[in-house]
Amino acid sequence: MITVGDLGLKEDKVLESMVLAAKWFAEIAQVKTESLTVEKNPGRLLHKYWKGAIRGEYRVAEKTWSFFCPIWHTGQAVKALVLAYHVTGIEEFLESAILGAEFILHERVSDPNDPDYGLIFGYEDLGYAVNTSAILECLDGLIYLSKATGDKTYWDAVIDALEWLSKKAYINGTGIFRDVYNPSTRSFIKAPWYREGLEGRPLLDDGIFLKGFLKTGKERFRKIFYETAEKLLQDEYPPGNWVKYPPSDVNHGILHPRMAYWWGRPMVMAYLDSKEKRFLDCAIRAGDWYTKAQRRDGGLFRHTYIDLSTECFGHETSGIACASILWLELMEVFGNERYLKPLEKAIKFCMRVQFTKPLNPNLKGCILSKVLPPDGSDKSPYHIRDLATIFYVQATAKLLEPKYRLEINMI
User: Fold this and answer.
1) Are strands 180-182 and 130-131 parallel, antiparallel or unpaired?
2) 92: enclosing H helix or E strand
3) What is the per-residue pLDDT across 298-334, written as a single tens digit (0 to 9) for each?
4) Before 247, cis peptide (omega within 30)?
5) Neighbouring residues of 40: CB distance < 8 A, sequence distance ≥ 6
6) Angle of helix 11-23 versus helix 70-88 axis, rounded to 10
């Protein structure tokens, strides 16, 4: 079993870093009012209730906050905060997680008589339309919080969302989900990234449908999970990744830095549930892809091409933090140290780019996401996205407490 010491790090230093990062959510990045104040909403997201949402974007040069998709970002932050609470016992983290979950529960269809009952308003690329992936990616935080608090309300919201997704978004028998839903017309519309012949995407994110099956015993959830996994095995290219599907760019051969995490990591869950090694082999290929894409200093870039070349700017620290979670889970299954060196480089890189003593108080504790290309001025090129800090907290919490590494064991 991998420990902090195996990475050449001191446990108290990793713990201190994780606590500082979690405090960034609880004390700095979380909206504390029902309406927006200092934050900008450039995408004109139609949320009516903002309290508890994580302000996910911070442009250091302008000192401005904004949002991209606060539903799924907040859901993942809730998961990070619950994990940080379990590791530390700091009540502030659990309170912040509850506040984040309240935002999600407010922003959904909660009337059982409404045809869209269970729908969560995961506004993302279009301010008036819901991304299917955003719904899926917000749910794990609710599962973690339900277990931590004993409050079944959160699990009930997960099941209601899965019912909506299974009936409205999933294309039966295909492993494909329709992507973008307009609640005002109650219809799916073309995604901004639509390509001819691409009906949707095989969304396996967080293995949520398998977790839903393990919680409820509903065979339909399990069927959807495995049909999606099979579709991903069919369409996998390059090994351990999926350039065919957005947000990767098949025309230019650009791979998204978290795709191998969203779709490769649940293959570990498929293996643990089914005992079929072909799923584990796919997860290993995803883990191996990350070792090849990782830069020598431990980081990762937003635009990594199929040939593993990159651009000079546009780092994406969240990608290597996600890789760390996958590597930890794979080594837990293997019982060996296959990914120890890449994991060591990744955690040390994240710790190096953490703001521990900034002059700007909005930055304290967060992980630097990316360095923007020059624009002709001498303004700070730093850009903060909450995702780097979210997945860093998740990764370090799992590193510090091994019992949280294999998630389907926790349902």
Assistant:
1) antiparallel
2) helix 91-106
3) 999 999 999 999 999 999 999 999 999 999 999 999 8
4) yes
5) 64, 65, 66, 67
6) 140
